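Exercise: predict the fold of this chain.
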Amino acid sequence: MEPVQKPFYALGLRLLAVMVLSTLVMLVKYTAASGVAFPEILFWRQAPSALLILAWLILRGQTDRLKTTRLPVHARRAVMGTIGMAFTFGAPVLLPLAVSTTLGFTTPIFAVILSALLLKEQVGPVRWLAVALGFAGVVIIAQPGHSAIPPLGAFVGLGAGFMVALISIQVRDLGRTEESLSIVFWFSALSTPVLALGLPFYASHHSAWQWFLLLSAGVLGLIGQLLLTAALRYGQVATVIVMDYSALVWATIYGWLIWDELPPGSTWLGAPAIIAAGAVIAWREHLHHRRAPPAAVSSTE
């Protein structure tokens, strides 16, 4: 049975999810600045998720919800997800929060390109123009050749947007047979042991405050993922995705309060172009799914 649609409830959940995940990104940047090795941060971001989900399902007697016949697909998603996570959290370590957040908004743009290349979907002129507009915004922000933004940081920031788009295609495929809780669990369960292999090489002694930061990152990551899933349960993607752009507000506030940094002028010029491109792509996708018959798999818009 399909869940009842609650648009305003979904918007509120998505807005809360963005706040939680923006706080997580800030914690990662802050924790790295405190001296904790970046790979160890990734480990502690992942480790609590599988344990908390498993404990919750054991208490409810529902561990059968984790059964799967697609473990190799989960493993591939875990590999790509770990790479994507490294890009997503590496960008704010290398860049001001607002800049890395803005570059992350390129996900819908990359999604259009990947849909055309990998899924062979037909992409009409409106969405290609949106892609061009979005990359114009990226050029304005990055200012190749004479920008204060380090090239590595710009690459990692764009890589985060690309990887999230690529992973979204994988998750969409998994979502045909697996529930969201199972997808989140297997991502954590399969990636955590791999990340743990490096602990003897980069783990170090931590203060009580650093342990608090690390464990908080893991808990916030799980809460954020569950909120994102719940928002999509009660509202359509094109409706709730507009809340994602509130991340720029949180990134600006955290950057100013904690690091006394404000985005350069180029970010304020390029961000509207990237946001407008993402909004147009989401809206056209919404229109397509409203008009297309259930069996349709490609778009001509």
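Check your answer against the key: The chain has a mean pLDDT of 83.
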